[in-house]
Specification:
Order of helices and strands: EHEHEHEHHHEHEHEEEEHEH
CATH architecture of the largest domain: 3-Layer(aba) Sandwich
Largest sheet: 6 strands, parallel
Low-confidence stretches: none
Number of helices: 10
CATH class of the largest domain: Alpha Beta
Mean pLDDT: 96
Strand content: 15-25%
Radius of gyration: 19 Å
CATH topology of the largest domain: Rossmann fold
Structural class: alpha/beta
Strand order of the largest sheet: 1-11-8-7-5-6
Helix content: 40-55%
Shape: globular
């Protein structure tokens, strides 16, 4: 039976340590890391996510601001708001909550955020640094997964890693971070032939496809480490991952639960990167 990777407990431990670092930064420099979250419209799920981020930020001693904007806002007006916070020296991290209304170009919004304040790690400048081997601000979910693997002492060097999913948010940056730790990495996706056979080669299997219980024990070799990024609503109302937990836990050595696995670590890394951005700003004053 697999051992559980408890992302919730690890996130709490890291956030307590982060609170100490924030306190120390304030005492030494007078700077309090500030996260600004821009929320366009009134999507209930987005409001929930944003609220969770603010609570975690305030608990760790951060300054936090939620900027609520109407769904009817024009793209030009939204870019102007982002520009205001780019110039605000008291703001260290800017996050624009997705999804955005159809009339707004998400790529234009992404490009408008200063790379130094892009604590989501999605700006092409930060992505380019990651792929060139000089990572700065990282996409938070892959960064959180790497922190979990390190905390549970998973040796990646020389191991075979398979990432199912090729999104810019998780799959691609996840593959690069694993590669940076000297794993041999395969990115698999919906067009991959014999997907179960490919996945079964993995010592470390990361699944991020958004299909509930897609990965069964037939995809997993004995003793593999399994990271489930998925969060899907099951027909009975429960949230489930992309991995059939009960089946796969019988063969894996380590596995993340859903919920309580990857999700809490994503918010933790968002805060960690806001702290790092504030620390960098303090060094340049």
């Amino acid at each position: 039976m697999a051992r559980l990777i408890d992302g919730k407990a690890l996130a709490q431990k890291m956030q307590l340590a982060l609170a100490d670092k924030v306190k120390d930064l304030k005492e030494k420099t007078g700077i309090v890391p500030k996260l600004v979250v821009i929320l366009v419209g009134e999507d209930p799920a987005s409001q929930l996510y944003v609220g969770n981020k603010e609570r975690a930020a305030l608990a760790a001693g951060f300054a936090s601001e939620i900027v609520g904007l109407p769904e009817s806002i024009s793209q030009a007006e939204l870019l102007q708001v982002i520009g205001t916070y780019n110039e605000d020296k008291d703001c260290h991290g800017i996050l624009v909550q997705l999804p955005l209304p159809d009339h707004i170009d998400g790529q234009a919004v992404l490009l408008a955020i200063s790379p130094d304040k892009d604590v989501d790690g999605f700006h092409p400048m930060n992505m380019g640094q990651l792929w060139s081997g000089h990572p700065g601000l990282l996409p938070c979910t892959p960064a959180g997964i790497m922190a979990m693997l390190e905390a549970y002492e998973v040796d990646l060097a020389g191991k075979t890693a398979v990432v199912i999913g090729r999104s810019n948010i998780v799959g691609k940056p996840m593959a690069q971070l694993l590669l940076d730790k000297n794993a041999t990495v395969t990115i698999a996706h919906s067009r991959t032939k014999n997907l179960a056979q490919v996945a079964k080669q993995a010592d470390i299997l990361v699944v991020a496809i958004g299909q509930g219980h897609f990965v069964t024990k037939d995809f997993v070799k004995e003793g593999a480490v399994v990271i489930d990024v998925g969060m899907n609503r099951h027909h009975d109302g429960r949230f489930v991952g992309d991995v059939n937990f009960d089946e796969v836990a019988e063969v894996a050595s380590l596995i993340t639960p859903v919920p309580g696995g990857v999700g809490p670590m994503t918010i933790t890394m968002l805060l960690e990167q806001t702290y790092q951005a504030a620390k960098k700003a303090a060094e340049t004053v």
